[in-house]
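Input.
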Amino acid sequence: IVFANSAAARLLRTDAATLVGSPVLRWTDDIQDHVFWESWQTEGAHPLESQTTVRCPDGQQVPVIRRITPVALTDGDSIVALSLRDIADAESHRLRLEELLAELRSALDSSSDGMLITDLNGHVRAFNHSFVAHWELPEPLLTRPDENLVWQHLVDRVCDAPGFLAVQQGLERNPLMEIDDLVVLRDGRMLERHTRAQRARGRPIGRLHVFRDVTSRAAADAKLRLAAKVL
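Output.
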């Protein structure tokens, strides 16, 4: 290292004087860096940009975006400009977001209600295990989901296909429309449907469709009504 600015010193938690004169591989131990600096001696420098980590004197690793750019000097000599951008905060936020998404997915999959999440145009974003069970989605739609085939499968499973499609078209025309109804399947099961708009900053961004199997409850209600009529 022949020069280091104050930003580099702050990032590596040292001082510029310590950086100047030290080997660059003292501060980074990524395999890409080893290959780059070794090949530079024989093949010349080439641009490189990727995510890696740098090592501070205390041994702590800091995630960075590393950009290496060859620079030709006027005297014919060549140097390499190495810039490092600290992404520790961004990486921390990304990991936290992944944790939250994993927790959300776990909560969705633990629910006995079938949940389908779509955008405002009906494009499928996600669904949980109970949705797969309620609608008996075939394996190909799980491994290689095709939203057109998913909707076609749903239409093929209901008794009133025209009515089901009419509801979906109404939802696409009215982003704030809410639905609470009963969907009867061809195999005799009944699914209670609740559709609500998803909002972000007060604006609709998608829909949550919740399907609850109420076949047993409907049968019990029918028996109670019959018993009441007999009595």
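The first helix runs from residue 6 to 11.
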